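Researcher: Structure for this, please.
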Amino acid sequence: MKITMNFYRWLLVGAFGIIANVGLAQTNFKMGPSPILKIEGGSTLHDWHMETNTVSGQGVFTVENGKFVSAKKLQISFLAESLKSGTSGLDKNAYKALDTKNNKEIKFSLKSISNSGANFTASGDLTIAGVTKTVSFPVQVTTSGQSFTFKGDFDTKLTTFSIAPPTALLGTVKTDDEITLSFSTTFIPTL
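Model: Predicted structure, token format:
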């Protein structure tokens, strides 16, 4: 009789555990179509921006009742020379400053993501020009079917990543140290 009671107790505990986790799952995701990553800044001559939509990424997300809850893992990378401004001279100066011959990729690896209501804050390691720094920034997450779109931006400095702000025309045109990084990326479940 004692064995039967213990068996029923454990069965009941297990059933409550299963019920509590209904709708909560960790799922593998990959970068969806049309990601946009931008770097914007200024100079003594004019404002500038560079962007890429050639980005790869993958993650493991916790999803509850069709909504994004958290990320166990998230990694994004792209070739630095995929960043384009529309002006070949600006691109050439940027690639030189980024030392793209030795540092081909720009990468982000998530450490944590927390939320307060509908607002999220991401923290992770960002590698630019071979220098890795921990950054934190706000993220908006929207749901469309089974995919999740992450949008956000944050300010940093070129010198934070040991990049000397480029100059042109014998130093008469100087790039500002301050830049803004922004992104809009959609992740879809892997099949």
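Researcher: Any notable elements?
Model: The first strand starts at residue 24 and ends at 31. The chain has a mean pLDDT of 87.
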